[in-house]
Amino acid sequence: VVLARMVRRRTGVRLHDLGPLRAARRTELLGLGLTDRRSGYPLQMVVRAADADWRIEEREVPYRPRTGASKVTGTWRGTWHAVRDMRAVLAQGAAR
Questions:
Q1: I need a surface site. Which of 8, 27, 56, 72 has the fewest CB within 10 A?
Q2: Secondary structure of the chain: what % helix, strand, coil (to 5)?
Q3: Where are the beta strands (DSSP E) in 1-96?
Q4: For residues 76 and 72, what is the distance between their CA atoms, to the nearest angstrom?
Q5: Could you tell me which residues come within 8 angstroms of residue 85 by beta carbon, excluding any fewer than 6 positions away?
Q6: Which of 79, 83, 12 is nearest to 52 (CA)?
């Protein structure tokens, strides 16, 4: 919820989750200049796409509960890295 508000404040895009599926044309995606290779990558993609005036759409999908522990938020270390990476992405100025 907090991350969703921060994303909305930074980009104007209303999202509930940073789900794992995104669809984009390869050339345009490479043009976003994504650099984060850890937990900030999905967020950086959304932020830079919003800065580039891409149409961003969220869809409801059915899902099942996770069977194991999250590798990101299942440990203090994973949580720390995710929070740090995402804060860095949100602190970046508008892309080129």
A1: 27
A2: 45, 0, 55
A3: none
A4: 9
A5: 36, 38, 39, 40, 43
A6: 12
Is the pTM higher than 0.70?
yes
Q: What b/e string do you get for 4-18 counting C-beta neighbours within 10 Å, with b at 16 or more? A: eeebeebbebebeeb
**Cβ atoms 46, 56 nearer than 8 A:** yes
- Report which secondary-structure segment, H or E, holds 76: helix 76-91
